[in-house]
User: Which sequence fits this backbone?
């Protein structure tokens, strides 16, 4: 890295040792400044105002499904999806050195981590499970406050970082536990010629029979792989919905042609990002890279910021 170039600044929800932090290390695989945000809204804000080079935000988990509020935050912010990462999540029970499971009276963690580990704790009915805002923050508070008889659920990295002992590893019920993260920024992704791409879209269809089928049929006929389709209510409009969809295309020109084609069938369209399909994934127990704390537009629509109003 040139001396005159500032390192990347990556905004995450949570603190050092969180799964968002590990996902950032796996994805970027080089040094970066970590910008800790306690909420997803502040993550979006710090990325939108340019304080962070990129944001990294969870949008889906293989066990509990989609995180639609986060997709809404991205859509409404006008930020652009630049890439994605699937992180294998391994949950671990940790506590102060010298503690044992039978000593614990309560265990703190994020609600999703607790949900993913409930079967394990059914064997220990004396332990009360307490929800918190972040897995790593739970570990940090136990360490800093020297809390005996309390444990946390989180990553091995959090245990190492906050000098806690892992009492039991891989306590998640389903070992195929993956979280999908999106990398978001203010500029479109750099895509190589003829590289396969994924497009993240949001759209509103006319409230009429067969409208969704008319949108999806030409995509199916063209061999487009629809990898995600979820809906949420359109605020202020009874029985109207916004659909979020991810689609895989052979290359960016093909994606842009097909998106332009279906736009004529839609009331509104957001192109939240077209980015390389690189199937990047990792294991939360073996992160790559390290971090330190820090204080082309489309044709006829703008990627990320474009609300296209088209007649039907």
Assistant:
């Amino acid at each position: 890295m040139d001396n005159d170039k500032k390192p990347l600044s990556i905004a995450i929800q949570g603190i050092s040792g969180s799964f968002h932090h590990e996902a950032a290390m796996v994805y970027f695989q080089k040094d970066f400044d970590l910008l800790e945000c306690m909420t997803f809204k502040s993550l979006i804000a710090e990325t939108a105002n340019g304080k962070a080079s990129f944001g990294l935000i969870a949008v889906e988990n293989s066990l509990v499904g989609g995180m639609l509020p986060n997709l809404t935050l991205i859509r409404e912010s006008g930020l652009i999806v630049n890439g994605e990462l699937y992180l294998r999540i391994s949950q671990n029970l940790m506590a102060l050195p010298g503690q044992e499971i039978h000593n614990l009276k309560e265990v703190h963690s994020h609600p999703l981590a607790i949900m993913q580990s409930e079967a394990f704790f059914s064997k220990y009915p004396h332990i009360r499970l307490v929800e918190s805002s972040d897995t790593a923050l739970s570990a940090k508070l136990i360490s800093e406050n020297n809390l005996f008889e309390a444990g946390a659920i989180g990553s091995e990295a959090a245990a190492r970082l906050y000098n806690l002992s892992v009492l039991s590893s891989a306590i998640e019920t389903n070992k195929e536990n993956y979280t999908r993260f999106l990398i978001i920024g203010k500029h479109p992704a750099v895509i190589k010629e003829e590289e396969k791409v994924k497009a993240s879209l949001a759209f509103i269809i006319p409230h009429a029979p067969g409208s969704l089928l008319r949108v999806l049929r030409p995509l199916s006929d063209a061999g487009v792989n629809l990898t995600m389709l979820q809906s949420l209510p359109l605020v202020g409009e009874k029985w109207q919905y916004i659909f979020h969809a991810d689609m895989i295309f052979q290359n960016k020109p093909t994606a842009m042609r097909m998106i332009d084609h279906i736009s004529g069938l839609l009331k509104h369209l957001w192109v939240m990002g077209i980015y390389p399909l690189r199937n990047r994934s990792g294991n939360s127990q073996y992160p790559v890279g390290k971090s330190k704390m820090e204080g082309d537009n489309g044709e006829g629509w703008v990627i990320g910021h474009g609300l296209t109003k088209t007649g039907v």
